[in-house]
Amino acid sequence: MTTKTNASYGDKTNLVTQAVGLFATHMNRNSTLNLLAGKMPKGEAGAEATLRKQTTSHMPIVRVQDLGKGRGDEVTFHLLNPVGAYPIMGSAYAEGRGVGMSLNEDRLRVNQARFPVDLGNVMSQIRSPADLRKLGRPVAQNLMDRYCDQSLLVHMAGARGSHNNIEWVIPKDNHKNFNEIMVNRVKAPTKNRHYVVDGSGVQSVKSNAGEFDIATTDLFTMDSVDSMKTVLDQIALPPPICKFEGDVAAEDSPLRVWLVSPAQYNKFAAQPGFRSFQSSAFARASQAKQHPLFLGDVGLWNGFIIRKMPRPIRFYAGDTIKYCASHDSETESDLIVPSSFGTTFAVDRSIILGGQAIAEAMAASDKSGVPFFWSEKDLDHGDKWELLIGAIRGTSKIRFAVDTGERTEFTDYGVTVVDTAVPIIGANQ
Asked: Please, which domain of life does this record's source organism belong to (predicted)?
C-alpha cells in the first residue's frame, strides 16, 4: 500500500500539505453557496490582520477566519448596524452632532466536524484495481464540501425541512445530533422576513386554524417575483443589495440573490419569456468579469438574480413549519402543512439574500494551522487503513433588533424567505 504513494501513512508533512490543499480547493469552488461569499482581504500588516480576516459585508455570506482560535471555541465578528439620521440645515450648528456609527460585535461558536473514510484492508487492496487511498481523498472532500454548503443553506432558510436522500449530510431536525451538527441554533425567519405566495402575489405568513395558510395553486411564478419586489421596495429597512466583485453595474442596477428549489426553478423556467431572463443574466456576467453566479441555471428579472439551489428545503403534508408570530419577539410558533397537499404537493422554501445575511466563522486546527485538517492511520497492525477529513467552523444567520421608527422589530438582516407550493412525484422525494 505505501509503495503506491510518495508519502507513508501518518507522515506529518504530508498531512499538513493535504489539509492546506483541501482547504484551498474548498474555498475556490464554484458551488452556488461558495459564490455568495467575498474573498478574504489580502496585504494587511500586523498580528491582528494575520490572525483575523473578515470578508466584505456587501456579499450574503460574511466569512471570518480567526486563526487564533481552536476547535470548540467562539469567533468574534463585526457587523455594521443600520444607520438613520436627518440633515442639519442652513447655518444650524453641526459640530458635535454627528450621527453615531456603530459596529455590532457578535460571537459565533465553532466546532470541529470530521468525516472518516474506510479504505479497506490488505485483501481489498489486492482485489481492487484502483488505489483506494487516492479514491478516498475526493470522497472525503466531497463530504466536507456538502456539509459546509448544506449547513449554510439550512441556517439561511431557518429550517432543515423533510426532504431527505443520500445527497444530504445534514440530518432532519428530529435527529438526536441535529443541534450539535449545526453548531449554532437554527433560527426560524423573523416575522418581517417570512412570506408566502398567495394567488398572484405574496403575503405575510398566516395561520388557518393551526394550518399553514397556503393552497396547492400558490406556485412560484413571474407574478410572485414582481409582487415580492414591490414588498421589498416598500418595507422599512429591506435586505441590502449585493455587490459582486467586478460588477460595474452594481450601483446603477442593484441586485439581490434569490435561491429557489429545483421544483420552483422548473416552474419559473416554464414562464413565457424565461429565455430572455437567462439572456439578461448572461449579459450581466459580461459586466461582472464572467462571475459564475450569473451563469448556469439562472435568470435575471426585476432586481433579482434567480438561481437554482442544490437541494430543496421542503415540507410535506402534516409537517411542522416554525414561524415568528410577532415582530417584537423571537418566540417560534408552529404551523402544519395542510393535509390537502397529500402526496402530490409540498411546500418549498425559497431564499432571498442581500448583503450581510449570514456569518461563517473558521478557526485554525492545531494539526494544520488552517481550518481544515487531514489524518491517515493504519489499523490492526497495518492490515487496515482509514483516512479522515475535518474542519473547524460554524455558521449563523445575522439578526438585529431594528428600530423602524414605529417599533423595534427582530430582523433577519440580509435574509428573506418565501414559501410556495410545488408539485412533487411521491412523498418524501
From this structure: Bacteria
